[in-house]
Description:
By secondary structure, the protein is α/β, with parallel strands linked by helices. It has seven helices and ten strands. It has a single domain, classed as P-loop containing nucleotide triphosphate hydrolases (Rossmann fold, 3-Layer(aba) Sandwich). The strands form two sheets. It has a six-stranded mixed sheet, with helices on both faces. Helix 6 (191-208) links the parallel strand 7 (179-183) and strand 8. The N and C termini lie close together (9 Å).
Amino acid sequence: MQSKPNSNGDATPAQDEWVIQAENLTKVYKMGQVEVHALNGLSMRIARGEVVSIMGPSGSGKSTLMNIIGCLDRPTSGEYILDGEPVARLSDDQLATIRNRKVGFVFQSFNLLSRATALANVELPLRYAGMAHGRRDKARMALEAVGLADRLYHRSNELSGGQQQRVAIARALVNNPAIILADEPTGNLDTRSGQEIMELLLNLNRDNGTTLIIVTHAPNIAEQSQRIIYIRDGVVEEAL
């Protein structure tokens, strides 16, 4: 444990700045005449370079919080600052730009193009960012960093689950994002492959200072974090 959290899930960072600042976030979904309150004034902060797991039961607000952290959605109210940029009230196009530059996503289901090569999958965020030159070299370097130098031209459907997740991690890293947001990153893997993926993510944090936020149900995964934030009923219940 490298930081001491307070009751809001905050911690005193080793650095002077927070990469995630969420203050009094609410999210209300309207379903006909019914309002569903997914977040109820949630506040939390995550320091640059931290490894944090977010846990909570189904319906606790984890997925909603993940979507807001990843700029896939906006809160109904409250303030969210990502890497120094207030993003809560940005337009959809502005959110897409911030998402591409600031957030690397790693999903349980990998979300790769099955018929595209590993190299082509990792190039995608660079294409969306408008990078015209050096794109292939940068994608190659990202794949080499995750141990897939010999799988550049294999299609996704020719790779094992663990290798596909490595491609997904390379894709998440290729734009040098402020955070990597991993949603159940080992959920579709066997125990050995899952631990290899966790070790890879933790090594990236240790070697590059990459901020890592893991949403997980698995205690053995969360225990490898520096800090665990528990969410219940749309608020931070406890931080350890």
